[in-house]
Amino acid sequence: MTPGELDRAFRKHDEWTRGIRGGVRVQLSLEDLSGLRLPDGNLRGAVLTGADLSGSVLCRCDLREADLFGANLANADLTEAILEGADLRGARLTNANLTGANLDRADLRRGDLLHGNKAGDVVRLEFLREGDQKKGQATQLTNATLRKATMAHANMAGAVFKGADLTGANLNNACLESVDLSGANLKDADLTKVDLSGANLDNANVQGTVFIGAALVDTSVTGVDLSAATLNGAQIQMGVENLRRDVRKIFQEHRKWVGSFGAEGERANLDNQDFSYVTFEGMDLSGASFRDGNFFGCNFTNCNLALANFSGADLRNAKFKKADLRGVQFTRALLIRADLREADLSPMEIRDADGKPTGDSVASDLSGARLNGANISDANLTGANLLGASLKKVAARGAIVDGAKLDPDSNLVTTERRTRRGGR
What is the pLDDT of residues 223-246, one digit of tens each? Predict the structure, then answer.
């Protein structure tokens, strides 16, 4: 279209949006509009399916409810643009500037375009069903600038925000299922009640980010410091399958080592690693070394951790309910608010290569550990070393501490103690 034709089309569209007789909704599907300059323009409800708007200047433009399915907006200036309720499925916004833009209730899910069918029409491939978030062309916002943008209640499942700047952005109640936010800057962003299930947040900056009530289930957070974010009420659960391939390989080799009594595989040595919020439930990690690692909020429920070494590790808020912790090393570990209910921390009997008892045993060592606010109710700490441990406000109802080494001024109070066998 010529510049004059475009100008007339936009004037007619403006009349259409205002209900003026003779107004016509603009239809510019697949048109080459690259470099278009329409600051403060009115494209509300415009049909721009598959249009090339790369490099366009659309700052403060009204694009509410616009059809931008599969459109190319790479390098576009959309500063303070209004994209509320817009259809941006499969769109490309790489390096676009959306500072202060409004994308509330926008649709940024996947979508593909087929350029023509038998009737010569543009055919959409829409992926709306559950489980379709991996099909079709992902909406691309790689390296886009979205500082202080608002995207509340937007559906962005499967979108790519790699390296994007979302500083101070408002994404509350948005769907970010399976999105790629690796390397993104989420400083001071509001992700209240956001669904980040299956998302990739590797190496993202979450300083001051609000995740209140958010769902981070099977979310990859390698290299992310979640301690700098607000996580009140967040559902956080990372599976081992989301860890790096080399780390998963170490666990596989450890499983062989355990199963073969050391004849095959290799004992896991994962000292100084960050495993915060990972779920290890039911795994056999006996004898593994996790010294000085970060296990904040991890789930070790029903795990076999006999003779494992967690010396100096951060285990705040970790769950060890019903775990086998015989002979475990927790020296100097942070076990603040840890859940050790019904865990077995009695001495570990040492056996030879043939599985026969040697007569020796290894007691669990919690010397110098900080267990403030931890729950050891019904746990078996027979013979455990608790010298120098901080035991303030520890819940210990029914815990067994027969033969345990405690400081003379220890304030550990157990009630209804009952006898339990030391081994399993």
Answer: 888 888 999 999 888 888 878 889
Spell out the residues 6+ positions from residue 35 whose beta carbon is closer than 8 angstroms to its own. 54, 55, 56
Please state the pTM of the whole predicted model: 0.72
For residue 71, the tally of other CB atoms under 10 A from its CB is: 29
Per the prediction, the chain carries an average pLDDT of 90
What distance in Å separates the CA atoms of residue 31 and residue 382, rounded to the nearest whole number?
Answer: 77
Between the alpha carbon of residue 328 and those of residues 276, 344, 347, the distances in Å are 20, 10, 9
Contact 143, 94 (CB under 8 A): yes
Residue with tokens 């009204």: 62
Q: What is the DSSP letter of 237?
A: E
Token pair 């962003």: residue:
189
Total count of residues recorded for the chain: 424
Contact (CB, 8 A) for 178 and 133:
yes
Shortest CA distance to 97 belongs to which of 83, 109, 80, 72? 80
Q: How far apart are CA 251 and CA 196, in angstroms?
A: 26
CA gap 101, 174 in Å, rounded: 15
Which residues does residue 111 pair with via DSSP β-bridges, in sequence order?
126
Answer for the pair 303, 320: CB distance below 8 angstroms, yes or no.
yes
Which of these, 93, 276, 109, 95, lies nearest to 176 by C-alpha position?
109
